[in-house]
Amino acid sequence: FAVADARAVVETMTARAQGVFREVVSTLLTDRDATRANILAALNAAAQVARPEDTFVLYLAGHGVRTEPDRRFLFLPHESAAPTDFSALRRTGLD
């Protein structure tokens, strides 16, 4: 249900922002587009245009895992490997 959840959040926030914010800019990455590289690129693009007075919301709909033995929580982008291969997850996951 991650895609439906993400779309609902974008639609709701855009509708509720009317009259509160001058502009709403959203980036929706779903399924095969929700790769580690694309997520990081979208965050970098937002960092280039966001100003201190702006409101920034990051919403991630998906799965994550806590790795062992370092107990790091990682969001798992689309291309992430099997959840038991912690070495691969550390390369593809997002802290």
Provide a descriptive summary of the structure in words.
The chain is mainly alpha-helical and 95 residues long. The longest helix is centred in the first third of the chain and has 16 residues, at 2-17. Helices cover 39% and strands 8% of the residues. A hairpin with a 6-residue loop joins strand 1 and strand 2 (73-76). It has helices at residues 2-17, 36-49, 86-92; strands at residues 63-66, 73-76. It has a two-stranded antiparallel sheet. It is elongated and about 45 Å long.
Give the ordered list of helices and strands. Answer: HHEEH
Shape: elongated
Total strand segments? 2
Q: What is the terminal-to-terminal distance? A: 22 Å
Rounded to an integer, what's the Rg over CA atoms?
A: 15 Å
Helical region count?
3
Amount of beta strand: 5-15%
Q: Tell me about the biggest sheet?
A: 2 strands, antiparallel
Helix percentage range: 25-40%
Strand order of the largest sheet: 1-2
Broad structural category: mainly alpha
